[in-house]
Amino acid sequence: VIDSVNQGVMDLGLISLFNPGDKLPANIIFHSFHYEGNFNIIASKDSALAFSKELQLVDIKDYPFVMYERSYFNNLIEDLEKQYEPINVILRTKNSEVIKRAVSEGVGISLVSSLMLKDDPYLESGRIVAIPLTGYPLNFNILSGGIYSNGGNQQRLVKKFLEYVEV
Questions:
Q1: How many CB atoms are located within 10 Å of the residue 20 CB?
Q2: Quick check: 136 pLDDT over 60?
Q3: 3-state class of 127 per DSSP?
Q4: d(C-alpha 58, C-alpha 109), whole Å
Q5: Pair 63, 49: CB distance under 8 Å
Q6: CA 27/CA 113 separation, integer angstroms
Q7: Which helix (H) or strand (E) holds 92?
Q8: Taking the CA of residue 128 as centre, how many other CA atoms within 13 Å lie in the half-sphere pointing to its CB?
Q9: What is the pLDDT at residue 19?
Q10: What average pLDDT score do residues 70-88 get?
Q11: Residue 103 in 3-state DSSP?
């Protein structure tokens, strides 16, 4: 996304920065949505984990996982497996609704960004619970926003759109 905006292929990109100190190319402007997220374990309301106030990686390593099939989450699982042992991933999908439904039915637990749970009907109805995941390497926030090229043809329109989305 960053490369496409930087090369002028796209006028606007929506991204999440996992390390807010990351440097973007000099001509790229980041417009923060002023919403920071973190990582949560989601579990069925009937899971033994549902009563936890917070969890660490060691607490969840023996549970079956329903994984969000994205490179960041795949890399995180690889790091977990280096620290502990192979994780029991029983389902991988790019569909967040499939993940939440499987978790709500007790198939397994999942690791998700709190941004994925904003106004979520599974969470609001109590079918799943979200438990903050703390400790290294998850002790950081995720910053979301839009990026656009400084001086791009549609810069004024993109800025207006981002201001509208932020409200």
A1: 12
A2: no
A3: coil
A4: 14
A5: yes
A6: 28
A7: strand 89-93
A8: 28
A9: 63
A10: 75
A11: helix
- Cα 150 to Cα 6: distance, rounded to the nearest angstrom: 9
> Per-residue pLDDT averaged across 112-124, rounded?
89
Work out whether strand 65-68 and strand 89-93 pair parallel, antiparallel, or are unpaired: parallel
Q: Are strands 28-37 and 89-93 parallel, antiparallel or unpaired?
A: unpaired
Report how far residue 116's alpha carbon sits from residue 109's, in angstroms, rounded to the nearest whole number. 15
d(CA 62, CA 124): 27
Name the burial class of residue 150, with classes exposed (0-12), middle (13-18) and buried (19+) by CB atoms within 10 angstroms of its CB.
exposed
Confidence band of 77 (pLDDT split at 50, 70, 90): confident
Residue the block writes with tokens 């999942």:
110
∠ CA 157-14-112, rounded to 5° = 155
Dihedral angle sign, alpha carbons of residues 17, 20, 26, 31:
positive
CB 31 within 8 A of CB 146: yes
Q: Which residue has the tokens 């973007």?
A: 24
Q: What is the pTM of this model?
A: 0.70
